[in-house]
């Protein structure tokens, strides 16, 4: 083992073993240690731990390492329940007690928001826990790959370290019904290698087309809605615009709180489903538009009085288009509720929204929609203090263009009508078994489909 004396430029080499003290757990899940000034990232550790690592990658300004052994363990270190943890790329935090995971995520969000968004860390609330930190995921994607050395087909998730498929027959964070589906796929492997299968469970009472987005943790969903509902009520808004609305989830859940609502979504199939969901759930006081949010939002907002309007934005991981941020800054609705599973792009967009104090950030509430993993959902409540561009005439009229022949019908639609960029941390984009929400949340959709890749 080499000594850890600082050297510049880095004299460290891949394959060397070193002792490190972990000073932080960075966003993404890797612990941070230092060899002198040289930063080394190592997964599956906790702040304060002393560990032996082996360098796997040495770059100019940082390196990566694998954990060899823990010399002084954190009091919050626990035995990971999953036998695939560390190999399979899905989870980063099973080695940490759940309470500790929440602390780690809160610090990461606060640090990131301060660094990228210039946001006061005291505005970031503690992370709302998931009542079920295992067995919660209602959607997973599994792949297959021919394992040449062992002459067998691997079926499972892509490993975090090498891009190969880890062969597995269960996933501890997936709902039990999905594990049944994994076993079904394993028992009936495709004739040739190279499949990509997305397994899902139907949400009760919601129509969701096979390629459309739906939130992937049913256990924390009521809390997500409760928090957004509370923020909307607090604003006193009478109108709601649900941007990136998917199958209409937020607008329909909150429809009774407002006089009128409108939703916009790129995925045309999701919009069809949103209209059906609104009918089925008696949310008749609004309409849904199909197209890009950036193109349609300016016209949509004209239909509502800005000082009485709340806008929910729940964009894909890449965040909002700059033109959409500009629309909000120009029109200045009373409230923007930003929901995101990607804190980095969210921080960038919050920074733009709050520039020159056009909007003021009231609070950021992180929710642990993805326990054991690096991901975290956040809700930000922004208020506009300066009053907006009021549109008194017809301000409470139905949003034009929501049906055939409305004003917005002439707005050109840009982009592909698909959901490849939806917020899917399973990295999917492949086909989903079709289902429509039924009597039972646990009711499975059609048998999983397999796609040759
Ligand atoms: C994170 S999902 C949110 C869905 C919905 N709010 C929900 O809770 O179910 C993001 C959605 O944005 C849609 N989307 C992506 N780019 C878009 C765009 N430019 N304009 C409108 N919708 C878009 C995706 O199809 C996806 O349904």
Key features of this structure:
about 450 residues; alpha+beta; OB fold (Dihydrolipoamide Acetyltransferase, E2P); Rossmann fold; 3 domains; 7-stranded mixed sheet; binds S-adenosylmethionine
Q: What is the class of the largest domain in the CATH system?
A: Alpha Beta
Distinct compounds present? S-adenosylmethionine
- Shape category: globular
Helix count from the secondary structure assignment? 8
Query: How many domains is the backbone divided into?
Result: 3
Within the largest sheet, what's the order of strands?
14-13-12-15-16-18-17
Low-confidence stretches: 387-453
Largest sheet entry? 7 strands, mixed
CATH topology-level fold name of the largest domain = Rossmann fold
Distance between the termini: 44 Å
Based on the structure given, which CATH architecture of the largest domain is correct? 3-Layer(aba) Sandwich
Structure description:
The chain has 453 residues and is an alpha+beta fold. It folds into three domains: 1-77, OB fold (Dihydrolipoamide Acetyltransferase, E2P) (Beta Barrel); 139-212 and 423-452, no CATH class; 221-410, Vaccinia Virus protein VP39 (Rossmann fold, 3-Layer(aba) Sandwich), CATH 3.40.50.150. It has helices at residues 98-117, 176-187, 221-235, 249-254, 268-280, 293-302, 322-331, 343-354, and strands at 17-21, 24-25, 31-35, 38-42, 50-58, 62-72, 139-147, 152-158, 165-167, 195-200, 207-208, 239-243, 260-265, 286-290, 309-313, 335-340, 360-367, 377-383, 435-436, 451-452. A seven-stranded mixed β-sheet has the order 14-13-12-15-16-18-17, with helices on both faces. A six-stranded mixed β-sheet has the order 1-5-6-4-3-2, with no helix packed on it. A five-stranded antiparallel β-sheet has the order 9-8-7-10-20, with helices on one face. A hairpin with a 4-residue loop joins strand 7 (139-147) and strand 8 (152-158). The chain is globular and about 65 Å long. It starts with 16 loop residues before the first strand and ends with a strand. Bound molecules: S-adenosylmethionine. S-adenosylmethionine (SAM) binds next to helix 4, strand 13 and helix 6.
């Amino acid at each position: 083992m080499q000594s850890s004396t600082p050297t510049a430029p880095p004299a460290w080499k891949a394959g060397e073993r070193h002792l490190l003290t972990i000073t932080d757990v960075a966003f993404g899940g890797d612990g941070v240690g230092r060899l002198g000034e040289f930063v080394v990232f190592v997964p599956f550790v906790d702040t304060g731990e002393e560990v032996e690592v082996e360098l796997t990658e040495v770059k100019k300004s940082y390196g990566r390492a694998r954990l060899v052994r823990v010399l002084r363990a954190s009091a919050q270190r626990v035995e990971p329940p999953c036998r695939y943890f560390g190999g399979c790329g899905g989870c980063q935090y099973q080695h940490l007690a759940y309470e500790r995971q929440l602390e780690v995520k809160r610090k990461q969000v606060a640090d990131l928001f301060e660094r990228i968004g210039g946001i006061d860390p005291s505005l970031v609330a503690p992370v709302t826990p998931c009542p079920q930190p295992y067995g919660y995921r209602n959607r997973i994607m599994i792949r297959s790959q021919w394992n040449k050395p062992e002459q067998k087909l691997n079926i499972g998730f892509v490993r975090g370290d090498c891009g190969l498929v880890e062969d597995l027959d269960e996933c501890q964070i997936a709902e039990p019904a999905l594990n049944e589906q994994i076993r079904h796929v394993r028992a009936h492997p495709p004739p040739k290698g190279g499949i990509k299968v997305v397994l899902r469970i139907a949400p009760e009472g919601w129509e969701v087309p096979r390629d459309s987005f739906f939130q992937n943790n049913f256990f924390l969903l009521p809390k997500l809605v409760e928090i957004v509902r509370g923020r909307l009520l607090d604003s006193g808004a009478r109108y709601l615009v649900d941007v990136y609305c998917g199958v209409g989830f937020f607008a329909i859940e909150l429809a009774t709180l407002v006089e009128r609502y409108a939703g916009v979504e790129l995925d045309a199939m999701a919009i069809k489903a949103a209209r059906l969901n609104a009918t089925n759930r008696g949310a008749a006081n609004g309409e849904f538009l199909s197209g890009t949010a950036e193109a349609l939002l300016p016209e949509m907002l004209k239909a509502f009085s800005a000082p009485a309007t709340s806008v929910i934005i729940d964009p894909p991981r890449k965040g909002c288009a700059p033109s959409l941020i500009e629309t909000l800054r120009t029109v200045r609705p009373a409230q923007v509720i930003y929901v995101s599973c990607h804190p980095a792009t969210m921080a960038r967009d919050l920074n733009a929204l709050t520039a020159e104090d056009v909007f003021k950030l009231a609070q950021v509430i992180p929710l642990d929609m993805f326990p054991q993993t690096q991901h975290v959902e956040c809700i930000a409540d922004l208020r506009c203090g300066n009053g907006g561009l009021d549109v008194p005439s017809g301000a409470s009229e139905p949003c034009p263009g929501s049906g055939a022949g409305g004003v917005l019908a002439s707005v050109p639609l840009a982009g592909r009508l698909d959901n490849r960029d939806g917020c899917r941390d399973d990295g999917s984009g492949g086909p989903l078994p079709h289902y429509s929400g039924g009597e039972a949340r646990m009711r499975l959709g059609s048998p999983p489909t397999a796609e040759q890749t």
